[in-house]
Design a protein that fits this description.
Blueprint (H helix, E strand, L loop, with lengths): L10 E3 L7 H10 L1 H24 L3 H29 L1 H19 L5 H29 L5 H26 L5 H7 L2 H11 L6 H6 L3 H11 L3 E3 L13 H4 L5 H23 L1 H7 L5 H25 L5 H21 L5 H14 L1 H13 L6 H29 L2 H22 L8 H5 L3
Parallel strand pairs: 1-2
Length: 446
């Protein structure tokens, strides 16, 4: 597949370029990481239905297996974001998926909880590494008018992956040793994605920031057009690839804001995904198949919410989409806490409200960190914020089966609602508005 563009009418900077075929291919190939993330984290919830009796698994090990990939996400994001800022986006763009393929295949042959835990930890590390790599590439190529939709759209693919996983798991649930095929299946899309990604070049912003100006210009000519130019980089950019640099010059407050709202988004989300069938069964969906199918349908509502948020984020702005999303999604969880014995219809409506309005905070997990940090430390910042949020998500996922067993369904949902509503408060106090601004401008502290 050639990267040459036919759009010879493109003039000006990357921020003002016209959307072309390369941008679309880049976004599609980059979305493979979140697709795999959603797939891998969601299918384990269904696979555990078979794994628990097969291994005689305790509640402790069930929580550890459910949280293992999230622990890996913390390690992968925190470590490899900095590596990506130092050695570039392109190399890491394929290595991480190769690791996912190998570990996915190896899951088929596990014989105990420890082996499965280790492999899912390694998969999580690879997925965590992909977050800062893929989002930085898309943000650094994307035109200003399309940046939020292209970057935020990556997160929508998380829910596509989760939805596909739900139905794949549902189809394999009654197959003997179906859990092995469920866990192996993530290797199939990973192979296709890693092949497609080999055609993507290095980020011209990263090349220019490293003083490799001629290489940056060559990439621009191939991907944007013969007259495209790279905006001048700010003179006060921090040095690349350092967590210390991310926490300097006033960027600490941005790390705090992103980490708070991202954690508030993913803690209830991942807990519900990892244990969706079990949670739904407690809402009087007694038939196991009905609970699994209901979990898959809720995934569709999450995807719808992401699409709606993408349509609104450049119309009404980042802040309203974020704050409003937290408020309504939190209200949905609060209703489930107050009325755990409600009718099936009302339970579905409340879950749907949570899922749809969670779309705003979800897409902004990807948009804000890439807009609020400069090229030299963008991947480091995204990786750091990813890691911090996943600490909370891992704790929440690990604690969910314990909370359901010891605190009960209502108390567990109250906790989830409180976390979501705390995200609304943090966003009200700290969220900036970046709609319609150039990437270097949104990253500036001025």
């Amino acid at each position: 597949m050639t990267l040459e563009t036919r759009n010879t009418g493109t003039h000006g900077s990357l921020d003002n370029a016209e959307l072309n075929g390369f941008h679309k291919r880049l976004a599609l190939f980059s979305s493979g990481g979140p697709f795999l993330d959603g797939y891998i984290l969601s299918i384990i919830g269904i696979a555990l239905v078979q794994i628990q009796p097969a291994f005689g698994m305790s509640a402790l090990w069930s929580g550890l297996i459910g949280a293992s990939a999230l622990i890996g996400l913390f390690l992968g994001g925190a470590v490899f974001g900095s590596v990506t800022d130092r050695i570039g986006r392109k190399l890491m763009y394929t290595i991480d998926l190769a690791a996912i393929i190998l570990c996915s295949v190896a899951q088929f042959f596990v014989t105990n909880e420890v082996e499965l835990f280790v492999l899912r930890l390694l998969i999580g590390i690879a997925v965590g590494a992909d977050y800062p790599i893929a989002t930085a590439l898309v943000a650094e190529f994307a035109p200003k008018a399309w940046r939020a939709r292209l970057v935020g759209g990556l997160n929508a693919m998380w829910f596509v992956g989760a939805t596909v996983a739900a139905f794949v798991g549902y189809a394999l649930l009654h197959v003997e040793d179906g859990w092995k095929w469920m866990l192996l299946s993530s290797a199939v899309p990973a192979v296709l994605i890693v092949i497609a990604r080999t055609s993507i070049p290095e980020s011209p912003r990263w090349l220019a920031a490293k003083g490799r100006t001629e290489e940056a210009r060559a990439v621009l000519r191939k991907t944007i057009g013969p007259d495209a130019r790279l905006d001048d980089l700010p003179e006060d950019q921090p040095s690349g690839g350092s967590v210390r640099a991310v926490l300097s010059k006033g960027y600490l407050s941005r790390v705090v804001f992103i980490s708070l709202f991202w954690t508030a988004t993913v803690v209830p989300l991942f807990a519900i995904y990892a244990f969706g069938p079990q949670i739904l069964s407690l809402f009087r969906l007694e038939d196991g198949n009905e609970a699994n199918l209901g979990s898959g349908l809720i995934n569709v509502f999450f995807l719808v919410g992401n699409v709606l948020a993408l349509l609104l984020v450049d119309r009404i702005g980042r802040r309203p989409v974020l704050i409003g999303g937290f408020l309504v999604s939190g209200a949905g969880l609060l209703y489930l806490a107050i009325a755990p014995d409600a009718s099936t219809l009302l339970v579905v409506v409340a879950f749907a409200a949570y899922a749809v309005f969670n779309g705003g905070p979800s897409i902004l997990e990807w948009i804000y960190p890439n807009e609020l940090f400069p090229t030299q430390v963008r991947a480091t910042a995204v990786g750091l914020c990813t890691g911090i949020s996943r600490i909370g998500a891992a704790v929440g996922t690990f604690a969910t089966p314990w909370a359901l067993a010891n605190l009960g369904l209502s108390a567990t949902m109250y906790i989830a609602a409180g976390i979501a509503l705390s995200g609304a408060l943090a966003s009200l106090l700290m969220a900036p508005e970046t709609k319609g601004r150039d990437l270097d401008e949104t990253a500036s502290l001025g």
